[in-house]
Design brief:
By secondary structure, this protein is an alpha/beta fold. It is built from 15 helices and 9 strands. It has a 7-stranded parallel sheet with strand order 1-4-5-6-7-8-9. The two termini are about 20 Å apart. The structure holds coproporphyrinogen I.
Length: about 325
């Protein structure tokens, strides 16, 4: 598996490629499938639909990896905080009974996700990696503590600092997220990606406590339970600091479009990403892709976007992107 080899420091001439959020909103076949299950959480917990949605981008683009169709917010769902997805607004999480939530274990129905992983692994070409994923504690907590308010991040950090049970919630999330990652790997995922999508909302003086300490605990727990596990840490907007703080753990790092690859030229870790999703949408991505390929030619690297693909992206642009990467021998 090319992606696993890259994560283990191997320099591939033709770089492996997959796209964050590749199994979703921009694909017509996904939208057709999704219509059959109006409730998004039901869709995530329907093993047949999950297998189909996971494999759709592989059938179409022959990516080097499939990412299991799920969501980072299955964790609050299985901790008993109900999650709704409102079209045009995003996820809305209801007010929870926090004392109870902090004391109860994750509902066992979460095993449906592990069944789906087993089923995908059986159907997927053996040369292609299956990626499992989790959201990191801060990113998940930032949705949980908004309790029904919509997607404004204004005042979130102050809210978190003054929220009486915030540290307890972060500890609980660290434990259940580690467990979710381990169980995905044990079910057949070859790689696990940690998404810290809202990392840049955290002020510098809180990065250690809210981002890097929980991430280190999760990664160490994964490595203890699954020796040799392949892990990618994606912290949007903070790749440089993440590498400084976590590189001793031997994981790969996602790089969002707001970080210049040249600022990371001295690192030897496996990097992933960096193409601006807006450029893929607009179709003016050729120069940037060539720069990424030039930067990565002597290092372990996974071609990807810097963040998730935008829903309006034309399928033909994705084809052009893949062809360009594969045309480099
Ligand atoms: O109606 C729909 O189809 C709902 C849209 C959707 C989809 C397709 C949501 C709601 N989640 C997903 C799937 C999803 N989410 C995947 C599956 C595989 C894939 O798409 O390839 C993954 C990896 C995620 C991860 C995720 N969910 C993140 C982290 C990654 C990132 O892009 O930063 C975050 C922050 C979420 C929260 C979330 N879930 C859904 C929405 C609308 C949101 C808010 C962020 C956003 O607008 O995407």
């Amino acid at each position: 598996m090319k992606i696993v080899r890259a994560l283990n420091g191997h320099i591939e001439i033709q770089k492996p490629i997959w796209i964050m959020r590749q199994a979703g909103r921009y694909l017509p076949e996904y939208r057709a499938l999704r219509k059959k299950s109006p409730n998004f959480m039901d869709f995530c917990l329907n093993p047949e639909m999950v297998v189909e949605a996971t494999l759709q981008p592989i059938v179409r683009f022959d990516f080097d990896a499939a990412i299991i169709f799920s969501d980072i917010l299955v964790i609050p769902h299985f901790l008993g905080q109900s999650v709704h997805f409102k079209e045009g607004v995003g996820p809305i999480l209801e007010r929870a009974n926090w004392q109870e939530l902090l004391q109860t274990p994750t509902q066992e129905d979460i095993h449906i996700i592990y069944e789906s992983i087993k089923n995908v692994r059986r159907e997927l070409d053996s040369q292609k990696a299956l990626i499992g994923f989790v959201g990191c504690p801060w990113t998940i907590a930032s949705y949980m503590i908004r309790e029904g308010k919509t997607n404004s991040f204004e005042g979130l950090v102050t809210h978190a600092k003054t929220w009486p049970l915030f540290n307890k919630l972060m500890d609980k999330l660290t434990t259940v997220i580690s467990d979710h990652a381990v169980r995905q790997l044990r079910s057949g995922a070859n790689v696990v990606q940690l998404f810290e999508s809202w990392a840049s909302a955290v002020p510098a003086e809180l990065q250690q406590m809210w981002l890097f300490e929980p991430a280190e605990k999760i990664i160490r727990q994964i490595q203890k339970q699954v020796p040799g596990a392949n892990v990618i840490y994606y912290g949007k907007g903070i790749a440089g600091q993440a590498i400084k703080n976590l590189q001793h753990l031997g994981v790969g790092f996602g790089v969002s479009q707001d970080t210049r690859l040249s600022s990371l030229k001295d690192t030897s870790v496996c990097l992933q990403g960096n193409l601006d999703p807006q450029k893929l949408l607009d179709g003016n991505f050729r120069g940037d892709v060539l720069n990424i390929l030039e930067f990565s030619k002597d290092r372990p690297f996974i071609v990807n976007l810097g963040h998730g693909i935008l829903p309006e992206t034309p399928v033909s642009h994705v084809e052009g992107f893949v062809d360009l990467v594969r045309s480099r021998q």
